[in-house]
Amino acid sequence: MRKFKFNISMSLDGYIAGPNQTLENPLGEGGEQLHEWVFPLKSWRETHGMSGGETGANDDVLREMFADVGSYIMGRNMFGGGPGPWRDEWKGWWGDSPPYHMPVFVLTHHPRDPLSMQGGTTFFFVTDGIESALQQAKEAAGGKDILLGGGANVAQQYLAAGLIDEMDLHIVPILLGGGERLLENIGGSGPKIEPVRAIEGPGVVHLKYRIAKTT
Predict the structure, then answer these.
(1) To which H or E segment does residue 62 belong?
(2) In the structure, what pLDDT confidence band is assigned to residue 117 with cuts at 50, 70 and 90?
(3) Mean pLDDT across the chain, nearest whole number?
């Protein structure tokens, strides 16, 4: 494994989802606005089997983010389907052909057999914690990077454990006023975070940080 990376869009007041999240509205009130910068981009459209799209600073950042990634980790809420035991019919938010095209490891308290989808995505459901998920993702990545998605709880666990190497925060100039905060529940003084760069794009500022490893 070269790097374990994390990226997420966040409001100016620190939220990665708006208030009143539900199964029908998983990003909460106003949460969709956090991702509007992504949808027109050429690189995003390519992963969803579409042509065309915008290039420029935002597209460059997104393309770099997914370059040479060999596996993915996400939390149960990002995969969706509601709390509790799995419903067999639930296969994620993305339809029959998810945009990942690689192994994805879903942290959950409820066992489930691997789920193979069209386009090369297979979801593996990990019930024995964040370090096990990372080890499995490392083996599946074949020496490439590992990318961590949402949600906040999973990101907080990995940050508190000092396991993340890089973090990209995409700051969208909106105020959600409530919802799910990213940088909470990390404990103590938290990890040492070193700034790497800031890139301004249309409707968003991209901040990259390096997480210093403690010895």
Answers:
(1) helix 57-66
(2) very high
(3) 92
Which amino acid makes up residue 4? F
In angstroms, the CA 124 to CA 11 distance is 30
Angle at 175 between CA 172 and CA 180, to 5 degrees: 90
- 197 within domain boundaries: no
pLDDT at 31: 94
CATH number for the domain that contains residue 181: 3.40.430.10
pLDDT tens sequence across 44-70: 999 888 999 999 999 999 999 989 999
User: 């370090």: which residue's tokens?
Assistant: 131
Q: Are the C-beta atoms of residues 110 and 127 closer than 8 Å to each other?
A: yes
pLDDT value at residue 214: 62
Give the range of the structural domain holding residue 146, as residue numbers without chain letter.
Answer: 4-192
Region of residue 89 (phi > 0: left; psi between -120 and 50: alpha; otherwise: beta): alpha
**CB contact at 8 A, 170 and 198:** no
How many structural domains comprise the chain?
Answer: 1
Please say if the pLDDT value at position 167 is more than 60.
yes
Contact in structure between 185 and 27 (CB atoms under 8 Å) = no
**Is residue 202 in a domain?**
no
Q: Side chain identity at 214, as an amino acid letter?
A: T
Query: Residue 194's beta-bridge partner residues?
Result: 210
Three-class SS state of 206: strand
Alpha helices (runs of H) in 108-171, residue ranges in sequence order: 130-141, 152-160
Give domain status of residue 212, yes or no: no
* Domain-embedded: residue 204: no
CA 106 to CA 119: how far, in whole Å? 18
